[in-house]
Amino acid sequence: MSAPKTVTVTDADARKVAFGAFVGTALEWYDFFLYGSAASLVFSKLFFTSQNAVVALAGAFASFAVGFAARPLGAVIFGHLGDRIGRRRCLIITVTMIGVVTGVIGLLPTYFDIGVAAPILLTLLRLLQGVAVGGEWGGAVTLAVEHAPIERRGRYAAMPQIGSPIGTLLSSGALLAVQLMPQDAIDSWGWRLPFLAAFPLLYIALWLRRRVEESPLFERLLEEDEVASAPVRDVLTKAFPQLVVGAGAAFLGIGGFYLATTFVLAYGTKTLGMSSSLMLNATLAAGALEIGVLVVGGRLAERFGAARITIVGGVISALVAFPMFWMIDTKSAAAVVIGVALGVACLSIPYAVIGPLLADLFPARLRYSGLALSSNIAGVVSGFVPLAATGLLAAGGGKSWGPALLLVAIALITAVSGALAPRLSLSRDRVVAQ
User: Which residues pair with 8 in a beta bridge?
Assistant: First the structure.
């Protein structure tokens, strides 16, 4: 590994980079969560039609999972490029791909227009979206961390994470607005509007991303000719334990989130018969609460360390898994909103600090690849979480104990990974304030 490096940054630069990273990840999560919600509410009817509603929903969730399955490919491609040619260039490419693909989904003809070609095209676009997302988050967090003074790394590294609830709020709000339309209008053209909104959002994200400077640590590596020639290979051969622990630490924030949102949205509407408006409102409440959790979590990481916060968040999430589903099962509007918001808030505690936790596991020359691969290994498994939860629900006769138990298992994996992370840290870089 390379020798320790120290670079000096300003708080103004750190804030600008963190905000640019936040906007890009907000678009990423807007697009990804929008697809997941649409898979529950729209795609199962318009693209994956079947006489059996469960089969149609499973087909929609399978296409949802494809995006996650493609993410490791994006992690390999953009991880390699990010550690070879720079973080900033790759992030401009990834955010462009995400925005364009999402907008094009809004232009697709449905199964009733072109038959089986419709779900095929939708799945292919989801595949491209997954490749782009595979390189987005790791690069955004790497850039934010490497511009942040080490004593304030928690707050700046949490900024890309805040893109998740903002994206959730935007996508849920857009779908909620669409739900006010007549059902015929929704099925014919209304569902397309939130996807087409990705085009103007992309313009804003690109404008901000182009104003961001390259990582000072990466520029130092270039100056000293210490850029890794094969960073992905080096991560797999020299930092494999760190990779596994990093994936485990990220699992709750990704897989748990999709269980508590995408799956719960389908569970509430299809199994319990509640209105989609109620479930979307619960998601909106959860997203608003999550913002505060992420801000506080980033500050707590600076005081107590990211690993401790990860352990606490994992344990708390395991404890509230069953109560969350019990509240949803009551079908009481207030209890449903509180249950979803509580579950998302708890699993957001380790998600708030996953940036600095993973950044400490890998040295600067391998960091983009390490973060991208770790988060996307977790992402691959997470993509199948709604499908697995649906299977457990069916096996349990429609009872929620199976999905709740799955959430407990995911939470404990993250807690254990948080405990192991400090022992495996390979980072020796130091970023100080000017």
Answer: 432
* Cβ atoms of residues 30 and 43 within 8 Å: no
pLDDT in tens, the chain (434 residues): 455 666 676 777 778 888 888 888 888 778 877 877 777 677 767 776 655 555 566 666 677 677 777 888 999 999 999 999 988 889 999 989 988 998 999 898 888 888 878 888 888 888 888 899 888 888 888 888 888 877 788 888 888 888 888 887 888 788 778 878 887 887 778 888 988 988 998 888 888 888 888 888 888 888 888 888 899 999 999 999 999 999 999 999 989 988 998 899 889 988 898 988 898 889 888 888 999 999 999 899 988 999 999 999 999 999 999 999 999 999 999 999 999 999 999 999 999 999 889 989 998 899 999 999 999 899 888 878 988 999 999 999 889 999 999 999 999 999 999 999 999 988 666 565 55
For the chain, helix, strand, coil in percent to 5 are: 85, 0, 15
Contact yes or no for 121/79 (Cβ under 8 A): no
Nearest to 13 by CA among 222, 289, 209, 212: 212
What one-letter code names the amino acid at 429?
Answer: D
Tokens at 208, concatenated: 């901000």
Token readout for 12 is 């103004």
* First vs last C-alpha separation in the chain: 27
DSSP string, 347-402: HHHHHHTHHHHHHHHS-GGGHHHHHHHHHHHHHHHHHTHHHHHHHHHHHTTT-THH
Cβ-in-10-Å burial (0-12, 13-18, 19+) of 149 comes to middle
pTM of the model: 0.83
Is the sign of the CA dihedral 22, 27, 30, 32 positive or negative? negative
What distance in Å separates the CA atoms of residue 31 and residue 98, rounded to the nearest whole number?
A: 7
Question: What CATH code is assigned to 6-433?
Answer: 1.20.1250.20
